[in-house]
Amino acid sequence: MRAAALALTLTALAHTLLHGLAGPGHALAFGLLVAVGELARRGGAPGEREPAPLAAAGALAYALLGDSAGEPTGHGPLQVVAVVVAAQLVAAVVRPARGGGRGGGADVDRVARRVLTVGFAAVCFQPLYDSGQAVRWFGDGLYFALFLLALLALTAVCDALLAALVACARALPYGTGAPPPYGPFLGEELRALAGIGPAVGASGVVMALGVAVAGLWALPVLCVPLLLTQASFRRYADVRATYRQTIASLARATEVAGYTPPGHARRVAVLATAVGRELGLTGSQLTVLEYAALMHDIGQLSLLDPVADGATARLPAAEQRRIALLGGAVVRRTGVDPQVAAVVEQQADPYREQLPAARIVRTVNAYDDLCGEGVGGPLGALEELRLATRHDHQPQVVEALARVLGRGGLTRAGAG
Prior knowledge:
The protein has helices at about 1-20, 25-40, 55-65, 75-95, 110-130, 135-140, 140-170, 180-190, 195-215, 220-250, 255, 265-280, 285-295, 315-335, 340-345, 355-375, 375-385, 395-410, and strands at about 65-70, 70. The chain is mostly helical.
């Protein structure tokens, strides 16, 4: 994806330098809009799909711009890509200079996605409009607006395909081996289109239509609603980020107190999330799974003496059940989703009575514990889990764990 975006970028820049800018005023106005939109973002919280909606809408509007105040613009798809790239380069330079910090660094995958997505929209629209074919087919009224909306839907699907590709590559367990299945990631991205995506796309279409009728004066007026939306989403993202940091801090309490080995909760959460994706969990299901994996040992704080290496699987069933229930009670007091508490409470139950997330957490936790006990390495730990599939571990979860580990190399959960 990066190679395709780089090739398109170099072609667009070379073409623009060779032939010059068509409509330099419009190029400057939309370039500034994209740059300001990029500068207005503050990094991007984990899982935030569009941290710069104003920039995305501005880039899309330029790609779908045919006229300005009734006069044709004629800038073409390659100039659209060149202007968007130049604006993002300006934002990438200015942002660190004004103290943007690490969060202000350019996300190469996100930039590549934007270049390819905007390029797709421009290639689909500009030749049709410049040739007059779009007007002959759809006129300049309602049908033309519907044409833009249909093109917007295709662009959104294109972006979802690219976003799923990036997420699939990033979910590669430990940096080696084959990536996990692409389907669950694509499904998650398609479902996420119901979020801020429609607002961004509709704003881009409205900007293009507004400039077509009223000229560049329409841009400042049409940007205000999106700026307010961006501010609201940023506040929501900040709350989510703080929420997750609080959960991670609580999860470390057992490690600080010496009840579990250092990094145990994080390792279990990373590997459990990978296994959940392998089994088709997406969205909020993965969030519940991650939080439960981080907090699954919180009940051990009720013990007078820590269990060796925090491995409660060797304790009597009644004691395991008591620890799980106490852990669930603690989770409920934190205000976390009740489903997280339910997963923690079920850690000592037979797998047939557990929620899917509880089965995954129990199996991955047991795997990490067994690796710490030195039962013969990862292969030995997996073999023990397979022998316990009659009561303690669901066979499908154990095999999904084996596949995830096999892709990343058979290592301890999250090691390295």
